[in-house]
């Protein structure tokens, strides 16, 4: 599947050159923007796999656009700029930029940077998903433990029997153990 890229640069000639280079390298350019705000809006709408942003653009500069795109976790951002000051690089890093390319862009540098950036983005997405799953499992375990404790106290059950009761209720009602535990705790709140 082709990598879908959005280009944002206030200079139409640079956008055209980038589009041609990217297409020659097998990428699909799904949109072009001439300012940062349009780049953010188009990223929200088109959901590209990668966004190439110039730093100096009207309405919203590339760093502010990168920060917005990163905050919403819409796509990885590569920053294109003629500037390489340490301060600008630090700002780009803090804005969530995953790659930094100095203009004029050399065709040979573009593909490796895009591929490495995409790999890092996918690794980050995998870690975020794994973390969310771990948090969900922990919350489920906590909920089941609370419900089990309530059943042990209110029905004078031992721990194994309280767990089996939650398990049995889940199977009989075709619900998850977490949903049953939540229902038990809700019922406990109504009784209290």
TrEMBL record:
Instruction: State if Chaperone is listed as a keyword.
Output: no
The source's superkingdom equals: Bacteria
Q: What is this protein called?
A: Response regulator receiver
* Organism listed in the record: Oscillochloris trichoides DG-6
Q: Taking every annotated instance into account, which residue ranges of this chain make up the domain ANTAR? A: 124-185
Presence of the UniProt keyword Signal in the record: no
Q: Name one Pfam family in it.
A: ANTAR
Q: Which residues cross the membrane?
A: none
The record's Gene3D superfamilies line, in alphabetical order, gives: 3.40.50.2300, Winged helix-like DNA-binding domain superfamily/Winged helix DNA-binding domain
**Gene Ontology biological-process annotations:** regulation of DNA-templated transcription
Looking up PANTHER family in the UniProt record yields: REGULATOR OF RPOS, RESPONSE REGULATOR RECEIVER
GO CC annotation terms, alphabetical: cytosol; protein-DNA complex
